[in-house]
Each structure stands twice: as structure tokens, then as C-alpha cells.
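Aggregate trends can hide what the representation actually does to any particular protein. The sequence in question and its C-alpha cells are set out directly beneath this paragraph.
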Amino acid sequence: MHWRQMSVWVKLVAFVTLWSVFCNGNSIVRQFSIVQDTGYATNCGNVPFNFSWTPKVLSAKYALDVAFNYTLPYPLDGGSYNLTLTEYGESEPFLTYANPFTCDDVKQLIKICPIPKGLPLRLTQHISKTKYLLSLPGRYILRAELKNKEGHQMLCALLDLTINNNM
């Protein structure tokens, strides 16, 4: 696997995760009907949310639809996010990506910052460029955690991802 391809994958995961958190609650990019072949994130924290993707088995052959519903439990004016990717069945992650962010970073995604507690966020996103998935076939567990500046956990999600390498 090429480092550049891995970097693109990490950026894609970070973008989808962060955009899911910072999207304006009234903005719906694309709405899709739920089919039986849908993956769902598991909550690894105390903040309720719904996150799903279709198709459940990812492939460069198909576009990806993501849906996210969430209400901010605390104000958000910066903080940090941490992503870890572990091969299914392994105990140690093979990729960890952590980064702080500021209110200026948030303002690049939406127009307001700080974001008040209790703001409902709803997002649907269609991702058509999935060709980089070909370089990562297998089954993985992605853990995404977001904290605000004060260290309050805003979100913790586990995604069981299967990637096919078929075209």
C-alpha cells in the first residue's frame, strides 16, 4: 500500500467525520432511502447519535451514501479529534491520526463558532470518488472520537468497515 493512498484515505475519513459534526443542522445535501445493505456505527461514548452508510460493504465499484443525526451535548469552540483504524481481530491499531482544531477551523466548514450546546445536526452526503478503497481491501474497525476544548467528549463512534477490492 502506498503512503499517499493511505494519506488520502485518512483525510477522507477525517473529512467525513468532521463534516458530520460541523454541518449546519438545516442543510441536507442528499437524502436517500434506507436499504437492507446499510452499515451502522456503534456508540462508544455517552452521547447519542445515529450514523449510517450505504452500501455496508464498501467498494470502488459503488458510491457511498452517509447519514448522520446528532445533537451537540456541549458548546464547541475547538478541541481535538482522534481516529484509529484497526484490522478486524487485531488488538493494536495500524493507523492513528489525531489533530487539534480551532474555532477558525470550524468556521471554514460552517459559518458559526462557537457552536452552542443543543444544536441539532443532520447530514446526508453522497461520495462518488471511492477509487482509493481498492488499495485497502479487508475488514477494519474505525474508532472516531471528538472532544471540545474543555475535554468533554462530543462524540465517540465505532464503525465496522468491510472494503472489497472489486471494480
Observations:
- The chain has two helices and ten strands.
- Helices lie at 3-22, 103-109.
- Residues 3-163 form a domain with the Immunoglobulin-like fold (CATH 2.60.40.770).
